[in-house]
Q: What sequence folds into this?
């Protein structure tokens, strides 16, 4: 059914007259700029972009490099004894660095809890907001409101609320709530964008073919929306995993990882700190890459169906 | 399947979405079992709403829908044994052709091997075996339509409902798929209800054409009856192929009426089944474009013919005939289809005076 692509590029000698009589005209015909001379804006933008990349990755790169020093290493440049895993070894063997393992576990569990709740609630509100209902704008406004509230203030508020109610703050209760106040609005906004591409007629077709409501959600909506749901999950996880401001007043007696790192900066003066930074970044990256890979794999599997018989 | 299972009866059907205006306004109709029925009308005339009510995707405000003699209002689509083919096909984008077709079996809990076997049989029926592992977005419009058809047919419905099924296709494919739909309907032997706004599609396909306007049926009947014998001006103009001439009734006698269009001699027309209009009243006469003969002022004219005078406004060569537009009745189009050979025996020029003549029996008085 598709039309054959037609070569429209003229051969160089297609208009010998034109090139002989009006070379200027022929040169102006070229659409792509020639490689010889670039406008000054190209260099200005290239410089700006380079500065941007440096500002973005430079600081992190310093931490990573400094974490791979040996025993002679210090908190500042120059780098000594590169490369070595000495400070990583220190990080995992010694007791002085505090409860990193516990903090890490708590942060992961908290992030998973936040992720699951964010995905489920965002998905359900995405379903709800497809139709108009009474008070929908009010709910939406209130939801966006918690996005613009400063995190630290919001965390303090949660802490105060808990103490007013006579409840103890814990990372799995008050901190969970504080994190959700941050991840849910994000998740719902992403879900709105994802839902707008979901055609209502698929649901109707599913019903027409005899599916129950639950079957429609399970067999049609979730698979079609899967890439979007993974994106929401990714948001939820990363926002919670490195959340500091909302955790300070809400985590209770036991620290989450960002709090632990912060307290380490106050009392540890060795590159172990940088080693920890490298490890936690690595974890974040692994999770992000795994999620992106999952999305890509989903789409690839769909695309590959055409090849198989 | 017992005979009469796919008969559809609509009784006093009303649908109002806002409680004020009626999208469907009192529709009564019987569609016989195994018929190909086309609902024809402009957008917003209520034809799709009727289809969706038959399918069970919309509940009627008033009235009853009977399929095979039983009232199905309130039942879900599966229990009605209807299947719908949606306008843009609504194929599930994440499922292959085969899995799309097997979907209704999957939700019913049919084991995988069994449902894939059934789906493959259906895939073969619509000649998509090579493409059964493709996803919908890797198919052409025509192929997608065949998948949609197969997905609906595998549920073994007694009624198949098609919502503008050809509107997403280009002209050439539309004609092709039209034939395929008709073939499929004969093979399955079930009732097809097809909604369209294209008169060509309706009269080419349907056993029964239902012309709608403003939520009401204007005329329902066999394709030929509706096309050749339109009941009123709306039907005549919507189906096309007719000239409608308005005028004032001058006299009536012995079942014939004389109607005088502005600035013309009166034209005679038989009353037929239409109620005889009063003298002085406005009345419409329809004449088929291909029933009219074009004459030059110099030609000898049979005095029994009915005639209008005018000038040639435009000419369009159409291959097998020439479409001549005249200006005898004010702003209304008046079109004559002259067979190609005949036209070029004595060609007309634009601006030339011409007589449009037809036999009295070919005129029809409209209600």
A:
């Amino acid at each position: 059914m598709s039309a054959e692509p037609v070569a429209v590029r003229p051969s160089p000698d297609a208009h010998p007259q034109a090139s002989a009589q009006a070379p200027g005209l022929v040169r102006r015909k070229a659409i792509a700029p020639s490689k010889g001379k670039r406008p000054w804006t190209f260099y200005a933008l290239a410089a700006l972009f380079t500065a941007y990349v440096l500002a973005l990755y430079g600081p992190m790169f310093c931490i990573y490099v400094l974490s791979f020093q040996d025993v002679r290493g210090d908190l500042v440049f120059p780098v000594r004894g590169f490369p070595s895993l000495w400070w990583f070894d220190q990080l995992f063997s010694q007791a002085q660095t505090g409860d990193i393992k516990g903090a890490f576990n708590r942060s992961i569990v908290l992030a998973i809890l936040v992720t699951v709740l964010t995905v489920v609630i965002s998905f359900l509100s995405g379903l709800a907001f497809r139709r108009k209902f009474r008070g929908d704008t009010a709910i939406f406004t209130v939801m966006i409101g918690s996005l613009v509230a400063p995190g630290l203030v919001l965390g303090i508020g949660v802490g105060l609320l808990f103490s007013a109610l006579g409840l103890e703050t814990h990372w799995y209760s008050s901190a969970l709530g504080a994190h959700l106040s941050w991840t849910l609005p994000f998740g719902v906004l992403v879900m709105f964008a994802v839902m707008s591409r979901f055609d209502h007629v698929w649901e109707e077709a599913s019903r027409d073919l005899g599916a129950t409501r639950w079957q429609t959600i399970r067999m049609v909506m979730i698979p079609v929306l899967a890439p979007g749901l993974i994106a929401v999950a990714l948001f939820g996880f990363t926002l919670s995993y490195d959340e500091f401001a909302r955790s300070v007043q809400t985590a209770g007696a036991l620290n989450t990882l960002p709090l632990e790192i912060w307290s380490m900066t106050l009392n540890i003066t060795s590159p172990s700190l940088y080693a920890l930074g490298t490890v936690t970044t690595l974890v974040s990256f692994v999770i992000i890459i795994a999620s992106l890979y999952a999305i890509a794999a989903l789409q690839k599997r769909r695309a590959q169906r055409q090849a198989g018989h | 399947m017992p005979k009469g299972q796919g008969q559809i009866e609509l009784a006093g059907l009303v649908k109002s979405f806002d409680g004020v205006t009626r999208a469907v306004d009192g529709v009564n109709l019987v569609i016989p079992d195994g018929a190909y029925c086309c609902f024809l009308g402009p957008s917003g005339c209520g034809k799709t709403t009727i289809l969706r009510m038959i399918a069970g995707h919309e509940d009627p405000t008033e009235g009853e829908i009977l399929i095979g003699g039983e009232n199905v209002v309130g039942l879900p689509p599966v229990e009605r044994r209807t299947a719908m083919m949606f306008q843009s096909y609504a194929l599930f984008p994440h499922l292959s052709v085969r899995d799309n077709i097997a979907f209704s079996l999957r939700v019913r809990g049919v084991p995988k091997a069994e449902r894939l076997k059934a789906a493959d049989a259906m895939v073969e029926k619509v000649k998509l075996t090579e493409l059964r592992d493709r996803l919908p977005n890797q198919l052409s419009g025509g192929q997608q339509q065949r998948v949609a058809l197969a997905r609906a047919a595998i549920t073994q419905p007694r009624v198949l409902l098609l919502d503008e099924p050809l509107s997403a296709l280009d002209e050439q494919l539309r004609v092709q798929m039209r034939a395929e739909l008709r073939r499929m309907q004969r093979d399955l032997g079930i009732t097809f209800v097809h909604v369209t706004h294209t008169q060509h599609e309706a009269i080419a396909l349907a056993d029964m054409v239902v012309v709608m306007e403003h939520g009401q049926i204007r005329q329902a009947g066999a394709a030929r009856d509706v096309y050749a014998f339109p009941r009123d001006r709306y039907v005549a103009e919507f189906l096309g192929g007719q000239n409608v001439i308005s005028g004032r009734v001058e006299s009536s006698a012995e079942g014939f009426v004389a109607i005088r269009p502005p600035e013309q001699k009166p034209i005679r027309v038989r009353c037929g089944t239409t109620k005889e209009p009063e003298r002085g009243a406005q009345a419409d006469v329809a004449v088929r474009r291909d029933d009219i003969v074009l004459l030059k002022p110099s030609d000898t004219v049979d005095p029994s013919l009915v005639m209008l005078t005018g000038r040639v406004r435009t000419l369009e060569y159409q291959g097998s005939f020439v479409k001549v537009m005249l200006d005898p009745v004010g702003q209304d189009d008046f079109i004559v289809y002259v067979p190609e050979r005949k036209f070029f025996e004595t060609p007309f020029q634009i601006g030339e005076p011409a007589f449009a003549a037809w036999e009295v029996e070919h005129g029809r008085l409209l209600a």
Q: What stands out?
A: The longest helix of chain B spans residues 171-188. The longest strand of chain B covers residues 242-253. Chain B has two domains: 8-228, 241-366. The mean pLDDT of chain B is 88.
